[in-house]
């Protein structure tokens, strides 16, 4: 759970408030998820999209699996995307740009919310036409380190409902389940609590490109 800190704590810190990040924190506190449009600029999205496409054409991607490394299983009936894990230590220009922005956000979250995020893992994801990811939770029975999930969309144009592939997040209000459909607009980032909110990717009718990952505690 995201917990805000008392204002007096900041008097003892070398702290400069960032309104952009503060809006993210407010949404996470109030809703357990946030939608951030234009987290990446059009030029940055293009760089990342071109890098994803190039690596996919070079056959560097693999079929995504479910579970973690101790019980990983490829299940086409559950998810249909192809992925390529990103290694920050070996990142190219586009990926360095991505990690610099993510690291800035992580540093702010740790300083203001004391989340204790120590590691992260991200991968490129490509959903071909007709694929999907069934409803699930981003945590494992044998590994609960994932704190926040992030999806960064890299599509080439504004997404329309007929393109499919929307992310649906399920939450609860006053004891009643509610759902929120989020379309993968270019540059948009969605952040949500990994251990709390179930979600799914609806069937894709146009290839859907993104970077997906997790901010993790010890």
Automatic annotation (TrEMBL):
Q: Where is the signal peptide?
A: none
SMART domains referenced in this protein's UniProt entry, alphabetically: P4Hc
> Can the keyword Translocase be found in this entry's annotation?
no
Where does the source fall among the domains of life?
A: Bacteria
Q: Which Pfam families match?
A: 2OG-FeII_Oxy_3
- The record places domain Fe2OG dioxygenase at 113-217
Q: Which Gene Ontology molecular-function terms are recorded?
A: ferrous iron binding; L-ascorbic acid binding; peptidyl-proline dioxygenase activity
Q: Which cofactor does it need?
A: L-ascorbate
Q: Which UniProt keywords apply?
A: Dioxygenase, Iron, Metal-binding, Oxidoreductase, Vitamin C
Q: Name one GO biological process term.
A: cellular response to hypoxia
Give yes or no: UniProt keyword Transport. no
Q: Which InterPro entries match?
A: HIF_prolyl_hydroxylases, Oxoglu/Fe-dep_dioxygenase_dom, Pro_4_hyd_alph, Pro_4_hyd_alph_FE2OG_OXY
Q: What is this protein called?
A: Oxidoreductase
What is the native source organism of this protein?
A: Salegentibacter salarius
């Amino acid at each position: 759970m995201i917990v805000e800190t008392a204002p007096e704590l900041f008097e003892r810190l070398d702290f400069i408030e960032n309104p952009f990040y503060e809006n993210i924190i407010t949404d996470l506190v109030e809703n357990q998820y946030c939608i951030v449009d234009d987290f990446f600029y059009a030029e940055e999205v293009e760089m990342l999209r071109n890098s994803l496409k190039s690596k996919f054409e070079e056959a560097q991607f693999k079929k995504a699996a479910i579970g973690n490394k101790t019980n990983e299983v490829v299940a086409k009936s559950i998810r249909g995307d192809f992925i390529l894990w990103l290694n920050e230590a070996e990142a190219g220009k586009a990926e360095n740009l991505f990690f610099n922005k993510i690291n800035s956000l992580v540093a702010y979250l740790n300083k203001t919310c004391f989340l204790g995020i120590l590691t992260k893992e991200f991968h490129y994801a490509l959903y071909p036409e007709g694929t999907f990811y069934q409803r699930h939770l981003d945590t494992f029975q044998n590994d609960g380190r994932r704190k926040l999930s992030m999806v960064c969309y890299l599509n080439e144009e504004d997404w329309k409902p007929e393109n499919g592939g929307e992310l649906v997040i399920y939450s609860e209000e006053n004891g009643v389940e509610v759902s929120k459909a989020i379309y993968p607009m270019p540059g948009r980032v969605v952040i949500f609590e990994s251990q709390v909110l179930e979600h799914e990717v609806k069937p894709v009718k146009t290839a859907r490109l993104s970077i997906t990952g997790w901010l993790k505690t010890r």
